[in-house]
Amino acid sequence: MNNKNPDKQKILIVDDSEMNRAILSEMLGSEYEILEAENGAQAIEILQKYSIEISLILLDIVMPVMDGYEVLKIMNSKRWIKDIPIIMISAESSPSSIDRSYELGITDFISRPFDASIVRRRVVNTLLLYAKQKRLTDMVADQMYEKEKTSNLMITILSHIVEFRNGESGMHVLHVQAFTEILLKRLMQITDKYKLSSADISLITNASALHDIGKISIPDEILNKPGRLTDEEFAIMKTHSSVGAAMIDEMPFYKDEPLVKVAHDICRWHHERYDGRGYPDGLKGDEIPISAQIVALADVYDALTSERVYKKAYSHDVAMNMILNGECGTFNPLLMQCLKDSAASIQNELNSNSVLHHSEKEIKNIADEILRYDELSSSQQTLHMLETERIKNDFFYSVSTEVLFEYTVLPSTLTLNEYGAQKLGLETFTLNPSEDENVLSLITSDDLKELSRLIHETTPENPVLQYDCTLSAKDGTKKTHIICRSIWSMDETPKYVGVIGKSVEM
User: Fold this and answer.
1) Which residues is 429 bridged to in the sheet?
2) Best CA proximity match to 329, nearest among 286, 268, 290, 279
3) C-beta of residue 402 within 8 angstroms of C-beta of residue 183
4) What CA–CA distance (Å, rounded) separates 61 from 63?
5) What is the 3-state secondary structure (H, E, C) of 352-410?
6) pLDDT at 143 over 70
7) How much is the mean pLDDT over the chain?
8) What pLDDT is stored for residue 267 in this prediction?
9) Cα–Cα distance, 226 to 221 (Å, whole number)
10) Cys staple from 181: which of 27, 89, 205, 230, with CB 3.0 to 4.6 Å?
11) Judging by beta carbons within 10 Å of its beta carbon (0-12, 13-18, 19+), is residue 350 exposed, middle or buried?
12) What's the pTM value of the predicted model, to 2 decimals?
C-alpha cells in the first residue's frame, strides 16, 4: 500500500506481477490512493477491511492462491460488486474469458500491455459512471423515504384511533412494531426457512400496526370492560380479527398491494396458535403466515407488560417466563428461540425513545435493496441508461464543429470534443487541468480567476452563466464567448461537482 491520503479515492490493484502493479501505480498514483494485493485472497482481506471505501478495483484473472474469477464470485455473494466497480486487467483476452468476466459483474476490460492514456481514461469514465449511478440511486431512495414516511404516519394515525377507543396509552402499536422488527431480524439470522428480505421485514413491521383495526366494531362496554368477559362477550370480542380482515378485503382499491395482503393476513390470523387452538380458523403450525405468528407473539408480550383496565402490568422478566413456560399458549419453537436470543434487545428497545420512529437510514437501506434486487434489476437498468447517455453524448461531441467542454471536480478532469481539442491544441482528456501548462496558456490568469469566481457563484436554481474573454487557440488569439452550466449534486445540501459548456468565436 502507498500514497495514503484520506482526500483521494482508493483504487485496489490486484495482480501477482509486482511489475504490473508498479506500472499501474505509476500511472494512477498521483491522482488516487493505491492499495495493492498480489493475489485474490489478499484482495478479499483488503475488501473486508475497507469495504465500500474502495472506489475501484483493477483485477487480474490468472493469479496464484485465488484467481480473479473467485474474487468476483465472493464479491457477488457479499454484494460488494453492487457498490464497487471492477476493471479486469489481463493478457488473457479470449472471448470466453471476457464473456465470463462480464457475466460475473465487471464494468470494463483492459488488456496488457497497458497504454497509460487508455488506463487513465477508462478509470475516470468508470468512476464517473458509478458516481452518477449513486446520485440517481440516492435520489430515488430519498423519494421512497418520503413516501414511506407518509405511509407510516397514516398507518400510525389510523391504528391510534382504534387504541383511543380501547382506552390504551397509544404505545401498544409502536411496541408491537418494534417487537416485530426485532424478532424478524433475528429470525432471518438463524434460518432461511421463511426467505425474508429487509424489504419483507419493513412490510410486516408496518402492517403490524393494523393488527387490531377490527376492534373498531366492538361495543365500548365490551372493549373497555374492567372485569372478566362473559363467554358471550368474549365471542363478540373474538370477531375483531375476522372483521378487521373483512374491512381490508372490502377495500375498493389497492387489493393487490403487498402491504394490504400482509395486513389482511395479520388482522385475521394474529390470534391463531401454533398448536391449532387459536381463532378464528383454528390454523396450525406454518399454516399460519409467519407475519401473523410474530405479531401474535408481540401482541401477547405487550399485553402482559402493559397496564389495562382489567390488570396491572407485569415486568419484562415475568412476561418472558410466562411466554416461554407456555402459560400464554403455544408458539413456533423458532420464534421462542428468537425471543430468548432477543430478550435484552426487546427490553432496551421498548424502554427507549427509538420505538417512536423508524430510522431514516434503515428506510433508505430498504429502498436501496428494492432498487438493487427488484425483478427487473434497477441497478443494471441504471447502468444501461447511463451508458446509453454516454454513447449519445460521445456521438454528438464527435460530430460537433463547436468547442464543447466538460469539467468535473472529483476527479479533476477536463474533457473536450475532438473538434475543440484540435482547435485549442489540447488532448481530448486532461487530468488536473488547473496544473497543466498547455491549458493555462490558453487563457490569462485574470480571466481564469474571474471565470472560476462566476462559476462558483452560480446556484442549482441559477446554474447558467456567460463570459467573454480571449483564448490563445492553435490558429491564433481569438475573442471568445463562453456559455456554460454548473452541475450540482443531489445531496440535501447540493455541492458543486462540475460544469459543461461551449465557447464561440465572437
Assistant:
1) 415
2) 279
3) no
4) 6
5) CHHHHCCCHHHHHHHHHHHHHHCCCCHHHHHHHHHHHHHHHHHHHHHHCCCEEEEEECC
6) no
7) 80
8) 94
9) 9
10) 205
11) buried
12) 0.46
